[in-house]
């Protein structure tokens, strides 16, 4: 039956317009390291886990990834983003209504993010903890997105099969993780384009999202998987 059993929500750039806060943090970090953040490097960081983001920053800025320097950079970035997330965080268009629609439909929900738990807890002050049955963060699995571990864990906690769930994502990295987990994937791009692919469904925004739309995402993704098992 092609009815969605649960919805797995990405956070930054999907529900919250928080990538703009991360943008401030990573650009200030680059200057702290004596460099300037280019737009190309910034785009490569969108959706990346903390460890991967630091690796990209040091590699692309041409800095030796000495453990002490990387640890100090991680501490700087976490402290700055903590400051930026300590107040209300802007929502993405239609996100509040989409969350309430899913709740009203009685669908189990999970927040699935590469952001570490301490920062996610700040974001949940805006999101509302009661809107999610479970949450899984990037520092709670062996590898963050694009590895599928966060999505597999979220589905497990909900007692659902990943293939019966729809994941809602905004980034190339997140889409790769959700697809690898076997979820149906709804893509709502935010800061950067996500290539169109027949194995996923794209929307311009979450405005007007309905349970029927989520069912259609699952049907579409399943149909492609059956006709082309190698599609991703």
TrEMBL record:
SUPFAM superfamilies: HAD-like. InterPro entries: HAD-like_sf (IPR036412), HAD-like_SPP (IPR051806), HAD-SF_hydro_IA (IPR006439), HAD_sf (IPR023214), PGP-like_dom2 (IPR023198). It comes from Nocardia fusca. This is HAD family phosphatase.
């Amino acid at each position: 039956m092609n009815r969605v059993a649960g919805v797995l929500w990405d956070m930054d750039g999907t529900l919250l317009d928080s990538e703009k806060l991360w943008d401030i943090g990573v650009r200030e970090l680059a200057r702290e390291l004596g460099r300037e953040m280019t737009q190309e490097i910034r785009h490569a960081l969108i959706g990346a886990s903390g460890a991967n983001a630091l690796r990209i920053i040091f590699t692309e800025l041409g800095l030796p990834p000495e453990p002490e320097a990387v640890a100090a950079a991680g501490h700087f970035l976490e402290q700055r983003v903590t400051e930026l997330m300590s107040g209300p965080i802007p929502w993405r268009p239609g996100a509040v209504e989409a969350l309430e629609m899913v709740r009203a439909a009685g669908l189990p929900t999970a927040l699935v993010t590469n952001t570490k738990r301490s920062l996610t807890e700040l974001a949940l002050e805006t999101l509302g903890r009661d809107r999610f049955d479970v949450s899984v963060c990037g520092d709670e699995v062996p590898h963050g997105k694009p590895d599928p571990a966060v999505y597999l864990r979220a589905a497990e906690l909900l007692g659902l099969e990943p293939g019966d769930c729809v994941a809602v994502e905004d980034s190339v990295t997140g889409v790769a993780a959700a697809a690898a987990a076997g979820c149906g994937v709804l893509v709502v791009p935010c800061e950067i384009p996500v290539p169109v692919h027949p194995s996923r469904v794209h929307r311009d925004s979450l405005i007007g999202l309905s349970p029927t739309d989520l069912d259609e995402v699952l049907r579409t993704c399943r149909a492609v998987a059956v006709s082309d098992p190698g599609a991703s």
